[in-house]
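Quick log. Single chain, no ligands specified.
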Amino acid sequence: MPQASPTPTATRERLGFVRVAAVSPELVLGDVAKNVAIIAREARTLAQRGCRLAVFPELSLTGYSCADLFHTTPLLEAAVKGLADVVVATQDLPCVLVVGLPLRVQDRLYNMAAIMAKGRLLGLVPKTFLPNSSEFYERRWFSPAHTLNLSTLRLNDQEVAIGTKLVFEALDVPGFVLGVEICEDLWSVVPPSCHLALAGAVLLANPSASTEVLGKAPYRRHLVAQQAARCLSAYVYAGAGAGESTTDVVYSGHGLVAENGVLLGETERFSFETRAIMTDVDVQSLAHDRLKSSAFRDEAGGIGFRRVTFSLGAALGGADTLLRSISAHPFVPSAKVDRAAVCEEIFAIQATGLARRLKQARAKTAVLGLSGGLDSTLALLVLLEALKRAGMPMTAALTVTMPGFGTTTRTKGNAEKLAEALNIELRTISINDAVHQHFADIGHSETQHDATYENSQARERTQILMDLANKTGGLVVGTGDLSEAALGWCTFNGDHMSMYHVNSGVPKTLVRYLIEWCAAAGPFAEKAGATLLDIADTPISPELLPLAADESLQQKTEDTVGPYELHDFFLFHFVRHGSKAEKIRWLAAQAFAGKYDDETIARWLALFFKRFAQNQFKRSSVPDGPKVGSVALSPRGDWRMPSDYAGELNS
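-> predicted structure:
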């Protein structure tokens, strides 16, 4: 068994990324020697850019559409020789190649995928399901995999593993475990890749020769993405190109790479020239998802599978950056999606959750502290939709603005404008006198602006809301968001508490995104668009410290805890992917290049981990609230952690 080489120096590989490519090469139908040269040349080009896995189409050495020529000795012998030539021509490349050829084994012919690396033929995988209807009639030439009665085959002076139950592991590329199926296998009821994934394959390759008809390309994209999701894998699909025969059908050369349901890239179709899509897949994240998935863990798998191990050595070339997009705002939908549809879906989740609670509580009112800031504004907009869904009148919305020592005219004014524009009741109850009395009662100096000074105000506001809810037969709607819960940026038994936390599944960056949509094109744009835009542009602050002499804001949250866009990035990659600090720092440096330097990112990341660990006790006792996205921190569902955890998260 080959011994593992030293840990690779490339940061991207050490942190769990593997560079893969789906290739549709220029094809000279039936001319194996020319196809060998084309494949070897493209493999070298990709390897020099750091590629570790290059997948070529089905029967790529000969072409898929050779028809009855597959039964001719010259073509079959040329294919075997061509395979040996590719192995030799690429023996110095630290890259796994998957190529296709027709291969005679005993007295049968098989549609075969050959897997090779570093001058070694690692294995041969026959096609399991042979299409034999419409334009496809593979059974005319080939036998299905189940007719194979060998486990090894001597080919070109090598003893080679053969069969469908093979996985291939690169010992010196972390997470590189490959399984191969061929074209129609993916279209079957239970694709072989399902079993390959359960046997440990995180990378799934499909050399294919799918024909093009109207509407097939989007179906193919969906199929590849769904199989990647079902198998918690990266799926590399390489389709035969336009050089195939067009006697009755056309081939487009569709190459696709998907990761856990997300299409990372695809090739240009209908080109006679070589086309390739190369990208980096996160096998470390996929391994994390498999650990978390009970559906994956509970499924029996791997029985009878053989693991072929090998070493690749250090990658060639390629800057140590990623060939994939790293979103700086992973909670915010990309520009490509339908923004209205996404926002409406989020509102529907939040509003339905709140409406159900209002109905269950038989509430007569929904009480909300309206500060004029982001969170309470979103909570109000959701509340109005919830009242509709619950069949309650808009008069049931009871909002309260509670100015204190740090309240600015801007936020108070926006709260008033918003309530007026939406035609809802807004009560103004100052907390100043009550907090002055409280300081006197507990003997706290008002010049000492510490946690007691700030938290007393937050708890006074919560008391007012709770008592108003009791008085009016209502329910207090909480406004705290997911980002605040992660950082513990809330007052325990103050704004930390409510009767239903409607924003608990929405991080700060998404809160702003939703409000900006409401202002520009959402259901409240006409009535309150200008006010909503000003709220979205207002600095985030709890407004608990006194104002400056000129009445300007002295307390800005992001000056204290750091930019929320960074913390949301940290939160996503830590909770969703289980990433360690080094990987999060590295990804953030790329996502925020030119905006935050490495030192700034490291400083706020250290604070994130410190606050995340210290404030679990607050998350362990939060009110109910709806889960909105894939990241949530409810102690009853997604995140369970001891409040007295003493280990280091930032390691």
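The domain at 339-557 is CATH 3.40.50.620 (Rossmann fold).
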